[in-house]
Each structure stands twice: as C-alpha cells, then as structure tokens.
Amino acid sequence: MGFVTLIVAVLLSPLASSHPDGLERVAEDHGFIEEANTGFAWSPIPDYEVSIPLSSEWRIALSGAIGLFIMGVLLLIIGKLLAKKRGSSV
Fold this sequence. Notes:
The protein is 61% helix and 0% strand.
C-alpha cells in the first residue's frame, strides 16, 4: 500500500498549485520573505525542489518521493526498535 501511495503522490504532485501557501503568502505580503528564506544555513531540499535539470513539476515530484522514502525508512526503523523492545517482530 505504501508503494501505491508513493506512486500516486509522485504522479499527482505536478498538478498541485504553484501558488504560495498561507504562511509564505503572508511573508510575501508583508515584505519579509527574504528573511524567512535565510532561516537555516543548509537545507537538503530547499523550497521543496531538488536541483536537477528537469521541469519544476518533476523536481517537486522527485523531492516528494525522496521525502516519502526517508520517512518510510525512519518509521520502519522506529517500528523495529519498538518491536524489539516489546519482544515481538515487525
């Protein structure tokens, strides 16, 4: 089921709105968006786009797939650690 969710999310993400979300819109409207963008020195996927030579829609889709994969691995590790602590298997 997780793999199906990943495929659907990646294929549908190019259809998502390119307009800023609520917080980003407020930052733009009040003129402090540049301050907001300099909050961290480094980000693995800045502004939800990987830096590869593809269209913006596919860079966003790929960043979403990477994020889902990382979260899946982390949840699997946490689940295995909790199962080990309880004495059962996942």
